[in-house]
């Protein structure tokens, strides 16, 4: 599961993280007034499609822009926002080509690949190795990443790093679930929940599902109870939680808890929506 974190007034978009790439010591700068205008067109875009089109236009007309990696990551997050996982991965791969240390691109590739992988795919193991490679690399890079901008406080950055790391473990949990390695899924989902600055409702449901698969019904119910303290839970997640609660209750009563979905995703969790990945975006400045 991919989470969004916000840093207050510095955000120009509510659906994505507005950061410049943290590995870049010098903040990117536009090289002309025309580039400033192209950057403003991206920031003023009304929806994901318009934002992606504006990004493509800037990258085409300003090939040497210092905002390339940030823009490609923003395009990837915008593609994810509209549910286009294939395009999200394509933009993320381009970002990673431009910056081999782009942990946000790694997180999006890992998450997108995990979402597209099914139990009986002929290339399942190849895909899952890609997921694990990028998720684990992202964890290492995030741990030593400095604050991306001076206006972000240490406290804010610490919380953001926790959520980014939690995303990586969430994705590793998903990969383990596809393999039906529920013990591994439980371990990684628990890490994601423990590390995150705020527990992700979807991760709680996925953990409950993995616990149900291993017959730990009381633990599944206790996990689902934690949702009661979270406000504004997505209806799809609420529905999935209800299904897992019923499975746990039936399991405790000795009835069959129900089969695992054939896709390799734990039963009752395949429809849980993802949250937009935090992605860097430029802060236009006059040259």
| Class computed from helices, strands and strand pairing | mainly alpha
How widely separated are the two ends?
A: 38 Å
Order of helices and strands: HHHHHHHHHHH
Rg from C-alpha positions? Answer: 20 Å
The fraction of residues assigned to DSSP E strands is: under 5%
Helix content: 55-70%
User: What profile does the largest beta sheet have?
Assistant: none
The poorly predicted ranges are 1-25, 256-268, 275-287
Query: What oligomerization state is this entry in?
Result: single chain
Based on Cα principal axes, name the global outline. Answer: elongated
Number of helices: 11
Mean pLDDT: 84
Number of strands: 0
Summarize the structure in words.
The protein has eleven helices and no strands. With 287 residues, the protein is mainly alpha-helical. Helix 4 packs antiparallel against helix 5 (103-116), helix 9 (201-213) runs antiparallel to helix 10 (217-225) and helix 9 packs parallel to helix 11. The chain is elongated.
Task: Note the topology.
Elements: H1 33-43, H2 48-61, H3 68-81, H4 85-98, H5 103-116, H6 124-143, H7 154-178, H8 182-195, H9 201-213, H10 217-225, H11 235-252
Helix pairs in contact: 1-2, 2-3, 3-4, 4-5, 5-6, 5-7, 6-7, 7-8, 8-9, 9-10, 9-11, 10-11
């Amino acid at each position: 599961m991919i989470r969004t974190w916000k840093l207050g007034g510095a955000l120009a978009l509510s659906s994505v993280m507005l950061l410049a790439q943290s590995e870049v010591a010098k903040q990117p700068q536009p090289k002309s007034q025309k580039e400033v205008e192209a950057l403003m067109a991206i920031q003023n875009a009304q929806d994901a499609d318009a934002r992606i089109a504006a990004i493509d236009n800037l990258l085409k007309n300003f090939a040497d822009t210092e905002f390339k990696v940030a823009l490609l990551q923003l395009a990837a997050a915008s593609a994810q926002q509209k549910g286009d996982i294939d395009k999200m991965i394509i933009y993320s791969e381009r970002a990673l080509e431009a910056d081999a240390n782009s942990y946000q691109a790694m997180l999006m590739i890992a998450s997108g690949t995990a979402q597209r992988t099914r139990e009986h795919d002929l290339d399942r193991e190849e895909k899952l190795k890609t997921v694990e490679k990028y998720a684990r690399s992202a964890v290492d890079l995030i741990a030593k990443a400095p604050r991306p901008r001076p206006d972000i406080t240490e406290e804010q950055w610490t919380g953001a790093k926790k959520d980014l790391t939690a995303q990586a473990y969430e994705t590793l949990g998903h990969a383990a679930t596809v393999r039906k390695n529920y013990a591994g899924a439980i371990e990684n989902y628990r890490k994601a929940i423990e590390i995150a600055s705020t527990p992700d409702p979807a991760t709680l449901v996925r953990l409950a599902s993995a616990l149900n698969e291993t017959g730990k019904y009381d633990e599944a119910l206790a996990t689902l109870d934690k949702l009661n303290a979270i406000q504004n839970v997505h209806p799809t997640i609420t529905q999935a939680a209800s299904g897992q609660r019923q499975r746990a209750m039936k399991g405790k009563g000795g009835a069959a808890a129900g089969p695992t979905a054939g896709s390799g995703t734990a039963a009752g969790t395949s429809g849980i929506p993802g949250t937009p990945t935090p992605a860097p975006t430029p802060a236009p400045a006059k040259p």
